[in-house]
Structure formats: structure tokens, C-alpha cells
Amino acid sequence: MLSPSAPASFAPVSTTAAPSASLAPDAVLTVAGVGAQLAEEHCRLPGETADAVRDAGFARHFVPRRYGGSEGTFGEFLTATAAVAAVCASTAWCAALFAAHGRLASYLPEQARQELWGAGPDVRIAASVIPPQGRATACEGGWLLDGRWSYASGIDHAEWVLLACFTEGAAGREHRIFAVPRAEVTVLDTWRPLGLRGTGSNSVRVVGVFVPEHRTFTLDRLLRPLPGGGRCHGVPFPMVAALQFAAPLLGAAEAAQSLWIAATAGRRRADGRPAALTPAARHLAAESSAKIKAARLLLTEVALRADTAEATPAVVAECRRDAAMAAALCAEAVDRLFHAAGAGALAEGNPLQQKWRDVTAAAAHATLSFDTAAAAYADAVFPDAGEPGSGERDPGEREPGERDVRDSHGPDSGRPYSEQA
After folding, report:
1. Fewer CB atoms inside 10 Å of the end CB: C or N, the chain?
2. What are the boundaries of the region Disordered (predicted)?
């Protein structure tokens, strides 16, 4: 979630989608399939898999064209990421984030972008930017970073990493992002999760690393279009943040559905009857496939809005709602499939079990929380419901732990961000 101090202003963007970026997910599938078990065992992608992700165009997908990037579409991003996730969710997770972090790095000042992409756009960038961690101390010409940052997916194969700290600015506390060469951080072997084991989402430690001023920007920049950027740089961060995490989840859920269908078709009950003829199995086949199909339709609509729609607060809230609901539908469907698969699914190495673990882990990501997305959507469609004197609760009187999502979207759901400044 963006900083509460971020301005609620966002200019209208073009409704013309960028041409195809020509991602090549098929080039990843074989390599990812071969390396999936190694990724599971070693809790990071094999080098060959990470290289295949780069070579398929994921790292360059949202990089500006002036640096050789693709300035690709969110529709192609969704399709390619889900295709890879059907084979290996961890590979797809890293692919999605390498692409997404290239988009974030596009907001760095020009000198930093030259440092990142001067030799080419196929640069893998890891990140740990939400929540801010560590400490940044202002010094002559820039900042000194110290501390520890968690969950930097793909860090073992990254050339750069984006880290975030709270800093003090002219207007108060700022959420500032720093671009740091991977060679200047220490990777800590901390990633031993239930699912998405191959993402290598380790912690990093930094001790007294100098970051020049030109390699930083504040998170509120992500609420405004990138000057001279493509369509993919003309949408606010909250509009697409959930999509990057939901896309791998979708592909894994679709694969889980196929695995369950195949396994159930070949199973027989204790009484000798085919498992596929039982009413429970037939009902579950229809229900789970409908939920996962609905999730794909929801995410396809999110991507289409991101590629073509005007970014009003209502549209941003719809995108957050739909991506979070898609994730919930996938998680519900796969959970039921796993629990209906019998004792065989509990065996180590069972492919359906792995999909269940990966989907469960992905759905737990905070960006996919439906409660948070629902609150944002309600604020967009009921902009005056909480105003003092309206008979409803004052927006400032929040329950303990409740976050105010209005600040990221602006008070008027129907007008473009630029008209609400």
C-alpha cells in the first residue's frame, strides 16, 4: 500500500494499449519443469531457470523502450506468467516480479536508469520495498543504508535490488526507495517456507552502503505517470500491484485442476466404483473449474483495464477488488481439490500437493487481502458515507489495526486523479 502522505492526483492516460511485447514463455517451460524439483529442494531457482526467465523477456517487459525494453502490456504479462506457473509457480513468481520491478525502477532518475540499463534491458531486479525496513541516513551526495530487509524474491539471481526506508523530507516522513547493486548486499539464507519454496525470497543485510541521490525516489512517484513513459508507466501502482501476485497463483490453480481431474479419472473407490462417478467428485469438478475460470476472467479484465482504461479511483478500486477475489477463488478451489484427492496427495513429491502449497503461500500475500481490497472499493463507491454529520463513522475513527485506504485513491470515485488535486 502506498504511503498515506501520497498525493491523490493522477493524470488521465492514453486508452491505446502498447503493441505486443513478445514475451516467450514457451522458452521457459521445459527448463522450469526440469529445474522445479531442484528449486523446491534448494529454496531458490537453478541458474539455468533464472537465465531462461531473463531470456524469455520478463526482465525487460516493462522497461522503457528508450533503454531497449518492451514497454509491454499487462495482458501479455498475465498470459505469460500464468503459463509458466502451470509448470512451476516459483519460476513464475520470480518472472512476474523481475518484470514488475523493472517497471518500478523506471521511476528512478535518468542517471540511475542509465546505470541499470545502459548495457541492455535484460537486468534482473529484486526488491523489498513494502513495508520500509532498515535505516537510511542522509549524507553528502546521498544516503547511507544499514539494516536488514526481508522477502527479496529472486535475489540470488538479481543484478540490482530495490530497498525502502522511511526518511525525513520537507513535508515530513517519506517512503523512499533506493537502487543498490546486488554485489553490495549480503544475502541471508532465511527462506524455508511451506510453498513457493523456489522463489528464494531471502532476507538481505546492508552495512554502511552509500547510495547516491540519483539512485533514489519516493514511493508517491508511483501514483503519477512517468514523463515520456509508455502506457504501462501511466497507471498508478495500486491499480496493478495485486495483478503481479495473482498471475502466478492463477496458473498454478489451473494446473492443480488438471492434475486433480487426471488423478480422479484414474482412481477407484474401496468398493471398486470409479471415483469420477461419485456425486461429490462430479460436483467438485464443476465447482472448482467454475471458480478458477471466473478467476481468469477477473484477472483478464484487470489487465485489460490496466492496458486501456482511464485510471479513475473507481477503476483502481475495481482492479484491486477483482485481483483479490480472483486469488481467493483460486485458493478456495485448490484447497477443496487437495482435500478431496485422498491419501495419495499427502505423499512427498505429489504434484497436486505442491500446487496446493504454492497456491496457499501465494494467496497469503498481503497485497491479495480481500478485506483490504473490499475496504478500498467501498471507499470508492461510498465516498461520502463516513463524513462527519452523515450519521456514519468519521473516517478518522478507525478500529484498531484498520488501515485508511482512502489516501491512496482520492475522495471522488468517478473523476481522474488529475482532477482531484
Report:
1. C
2. 381-421
Question: Could you give phi then psi for residue 15, rounded to 5 degrees?
Answer: -95, 10
Domains recognised in the chain with CATH numbers: 26-122 (1.10.540.10), 125-218 (2.40.110.10), 232-420 (1.20.140.10)
Residue by residue, DSSP assigns 298-315 as HHHHHHHHHHHS---HHH
DSSP state of 6: S
Query: Distance between CA atoms of 347 and 349, rounded to whole angstroms?
Result: 6
Geometric angle at alpha carbon 300, from 97 and 325, rounded to 5°: 80
Question: Mapping DSSP to helix (H, G, I), strand (E, B) and coil, where does residue 94 land?
Answer: helix
In angstroms, how far is CA 40 from the centroid of its own chain?
20
Residue reference for cell 471415483: 275
Bridge partners, residue 268, by sequence: 274
CB-CB contact of 217 with 104 (8 Å)? no
Q: Is residue 194 a contact partner of residue 212, using CB atoms and an 8 Å limit?
A: no
pLDDT, tens digit, for every residue of 56-82?
999 999 999 999 999 999 999 999 999
Cell triple for 234? 501511466
b/e burial code for range 52-67 (CB count within 10 A of at least 16 → b): bbbebbbbbbbbbeeb
pLDDT in tens, 191-216: 999 999 999 999 999 999 999 999 99
CA–CA separation, 421 vs 418, rounded Å? 6
Are the CB atoms for 405 and 370 separated by under 8 Å? no
Average pLDDT score, the chain? 88
DSSP-derived letter for residue 333 is: H
